[in-house]
Amino acid sequence: MTVRQELELLEHRRLNPLAAFSDRTKGRPIPEEPKENDVRTCYQRDTDRIVHSKSFRRLMHKTQVFLSPEGDHYRTRMTHTIEVTRIGRTIARALGLNEDLAEAIAMGHDLGHTPFGHAGEGALSECIGKPFRHNEQSLRVVDVLEKDGRGLNLTYEVRMGILGHTGERIPETLEGQVIRRADQIAYVNHDIDDAIRAGILREEDIPKSIADVLGESHRNRIDALVCDAILTSREAGAIALSPKVDQALKDLRAFMFERVYRNPVAKGEESKAKDMLKRLYEYYYTHPQALPEDFQPQMSFDGLERTVCDYIAGMTDNYAVDKFTEIFIPAGWQVR
Questions:
Q1: pLDDT confidence bin for 19, thresholds 50/70/90
Q2: DSSP-based three-state secondary structure for 63
Q3: Which of 11, 16, 111, 209 could disulfide-link to 55, CB 3.0 to 4.6 Å?
Q4: What is the mean pLDDT of residues 318-325?
């Protein structure tokens, strides 16, 4: 018996019967035979493939909420991903679910996010004339764009968890539903923390009706939401929050949209970021020969619009600024 088989057997002994078991996966787009001496389950292998991907490494240079903040302690897409992973694993473990699957989904859920956060998402939506959704792009990254067009060939459960972490599609697995909730818990709370750090919000600004339910600090809010998710889900047999806590979270998100996500101080530079990405899109659309060499073959089977969209979406904030400067800003005179 291999180490992988021992781990799969252990899952059946210790996990909730409602968990997603590694040896019952619906498989990969391209079937793979297990290695003879494999020491990882399929979901562990998926996490490793994501963590070692180029798109994962780029997350550290992509905006979460605040564009190019001055300070080392603001969140990026990378730190957001790590926080979602930790919250997701905590909930999954307490519910007897498959932590490895939850981790893989969390690690991959934002791989398709654009530079400059949701401003970039909006810019590309305007460019292509239809909604650009980062969850769909995340799936495209792992299915198609990584490894020079070969994709990561992840399991069905991880792929559908990534797609369903937001939007209308709900993941089939409870682990995917856990990450969908963990994402909400993570971003609304760390965005409060960053907004306080930025001086555009104070802890006492949070309405008392919300604070009375979720607590009056970053730590207390996360603890309240995670504990409620665990206890309520245990009783319901599904991933859920109690009605009172669920409403408080919805109210907190609405408060954040009003005070932070649409705040002209916090978002004052977003219009510039959107205009910059739109100009980059227009430039590469009219000058396809300027696309990197590894994107050139893609145009023949995906079309120019999709190829340019993939290239722009994969940029980090700094890379987008550098390309814009290179293309549109006159360089200083240099004596040759």
A1: very high
A2: strand
A3: 111
A4: 96
Domain residue ranges of the chain, discontinuous segments joined by +: 46-261, 270-328
pLDDT, tens digit, 9 for 90 and up, residues 240-275:
999 999 999 999 999 999 998 887 766 677 889 999
What single-letter DSSP state applies at residue 19? S
User: Which alpha helices (H) appear in the chain, and where do they start and end?
Assistant: 3-14, 42-51, 54-58, 77-94, 99-108, 117-128, 134-140, 146-149, 156-163, 174-198, 208-214, 218-236, 243-256, 270-286, 298-302, 304-313, 317-328
Contact present, 28 and 156 (Cβ < 8 Å): yes
What 302-309 contacts at long range (C-beta under 8 Å, 24+ apart), as own/partner pairs, is 305/128, 308/281, 308/284, 309/124, 309/127, 309/128, 309/132, 309/281
- Total length of the chain: 336
Interval 32-74: pLDDT, tens: 988 888 999 999 999 999 999 999 999 999 987 766 655 667 8
Q: What is the pLDDT of residues 146-204, one digit of tens each?
A: 999 999 999 999 999 999 999 999 999 999 999 999 999 999 999 999 899 888 899 99
Query: What is the Cα–Cα distance from 306 to 311, expressed in whole angstroms?
Result: 9
Rounded to whole angstroms, how far apart are CA atoms 302 and 275? Answer: 25
pLDDT at 17: 97
Task: Tell me which residue of 21, 25, 17 sits closest to 7, measured CA to CA.
Answer: 21
Question: 63 phi and psi, to 5 degrees?
Answer: -65, 140
In angstroms, rounded to a whole number, what is the distance separating the alpha carbons of residues 34 and 16?
25
Is the pLDDT confidence value at 24 over 80? yes
Q: Is 96 exposed, middle or buried (0-12, 13-18, 19+ CB in 10 A)?
A: middle
CATH of domain 46-261: 1.10.3210.10
